[in-house]
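Input chain follows. Return structure tokens only.
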Amino acid sequence: LASRQVFAGTWRTRSESLTERVVVTVRANSVTDERVEPTAVEVTRLVVQPSKRAISATLVRRHVHEAVSTVRPPLAGASFVVAGGRGTQGDFTPIDDLADALSAAVGATRDVVDEGWVGHDAQIGQTGVTIAPKVYIGAGISGAPHHRGGMQASETIIAVNSDPETPLFEIADFAVVGDLATVLPQAAAALRARRQ
């Protein structure tokens, strides 16, 4: 027997397979991590003999390029997602900053994508990506049904909005009433300070 959510998480179906072989896929972050007891490891020594050509090479010059990595996990399977809505007014700097501090994926609402502020691959919702991260942070997002259908399976939902009546607060585990341009940089700074 297997169950899954359909229609943007509004229904749950249960299916039974009647065949001998079954292939089952599991949504990212739908299974919790479990601690595994360490096992004994057998170490085998391997002696490698480099060729004469390999040891005849001489290092003449070395140049190390220090680059800031902005590699983020794919949105669909990310454990942490920071998403921005129309309340960003097109400035995703606070969203990106907090996402970098959390090593999180960046998401967005359909309105933000339609405005061209971010690419379609960041869209969360019924016509975008459906996510189920451990932590979802929505900043400047009202919480339209289209967007909620794509993120409401998140384990912990944090909403940041200057409007205390925003619909996203209804499903949020934590609600912060405030300006995202102030709240998110403070959160990012606190996370970075904690890691030091």
